[in-house]
Amino acid sequence: MTCSPNQSKFTTAVRVGQGYDPKLNIRPINGTQSNYVSALGYNVNNQYADSMFNSCVHVTNPSNVPSVKVLCGPYGHECTAQKWITFMNDIQNGQAAYDVQVTFSYTAMVGMNYKTQSCQEKSYAGEPACACSDCPPSCLAPSTPHSMEKYFKKTFGPHYRLEQLNITAPHSSRSIYEQFTTSTDPADQKQIPFGPILQKSILHKILTLQRSINQLTAQYNGKTITLQDICFKAPDNKTCIVLSPLNYFQNNHTNLNKEAFIAGFFLAADYHDHLMSCVQHPNTNDDRTYLRMSCLGTFNGPIIPWVVLGGYDAYNYLNATVATVTFPVMGYPDDVQSLNETLAWEKEFFSFMENYTSHAGDLSVKYAAGFQFELREN
């Protein structure tokens, strides 16, 4: 859309501005006032939209969630090509530089309509195709059981196990947050409900528990085993993947406490505003609040709201009553040393959680580990 020499066939200037617009970071050039497009009309052929969507639909991010679901924002549960492209071009997503108003056409000759490659095809000569692990339906797998096993190990990598906490706060209550606004219009005075699990004091306690688990060690054959030794990591990052609502704050108590003020005493944003932004735009590194904080986890990947929160109605993630914290760890069934190291750490995990849940206080915690998810609780 941006670079095509045929832009005039599928884009139109819907709204034109002049001069200076700080929101769009548009400034005068050499002191002269310039015209600029502040809203663009974009016509897309449905066949092109669907083929582009189908090419990417199986690609996953480090959280093992299909990437298009992340890029679909609030439509992640029921993402389609049309919802995906619309959200990607919406200035409210925190990433688009300006507003793009998308129209889809079923007429073959109307709208942007280029050839797209299937998942396993190269886009350009000399560039690699997507990994086979990102296109399972498109790849041809070996037919014999032995070759199939070797194929899946090579393609999809080692198995991983899950250490998981499902946490509620039975003594906490829902609260109402009044969002800051400079408007005097009653329609702009927003009051947003937050579920009992998303109260700041509760989040601090969950983070303390999470960090305690992160520091657990075990002994195996004279070797000290830490979570860092066995955790599942993103390919280009040495940080453990931890799926938790606290990773919207990079698992940091200080970030959770951050506040932004205007004129020295008007509270303009705090953790409420950050959460509101992050559950809608988990892939952004700028929450577009006065805090200007990243929503990305410590492993530089997005935290998907329906993975770390539960007990909400429809897509109202902020009404959550359950927080889920997941530590994916490596489990190599055919590597006895590695598997036993993981099992030794899991044993310490169970021992710690049994002791923790006996005096958990404000939190009620169910926990599980390994391939067979046997939930335990206080």
Topology:
Blueprint lengths: L10 E8 L16 E11 H11 L10 H4 L10 H8 L10 E7 L39 H12 L3 E9 L6 E4 L12 E4 L5 H15 L2 E4 L2 E4 H4 L22 H5 L2 E3 L3 E4 L1 H10 L24 H4 E2 L11 E9 L5 H22 L6 E7 L5 E2 L1
Parallel strand pairs: 2-3
Antiparallel strand pairs: 1-2, 4-12, 4-13, 5-6, 7-8, 9-10, 11-12, 13-14
**SSE succession:** EEHHHEHEEEHEEHHEEHHEEHEE
Query: Helix share of residues?
Result: 25-40%
Mean pLDDT: 85
Strand content: 15-25%
Tally of separate helices:
10
Reported for the largest beta sheet, the result is: 5 strands, antiparallel
Task: Note down, in words, how this protein is organized.
This protein is of the alpha+beta class and 378 residues long. Helices cover 25% and strands 21% of the residues. The protein contains ten helices and 14 strands. The chain has helices at residues 46-56, 67-70, 81-88, 145-156, 200-214, 227-230, 253-257, 271-280, 305-308, 336-357, and strands spanning 11-18, 35-45, 99-105, 160-168, 175-178, 191-194, 217-220, 223-226, 260-262, 266-269, 309-310, 322-330, 364-370, 376-377. The strands form five sheets. A five-stranded antiparallel sheet has the order 11-12-4-13-14. Strands 1-2-3 form a three-stranded mixed sheet. It is globular and about 70 Å long.
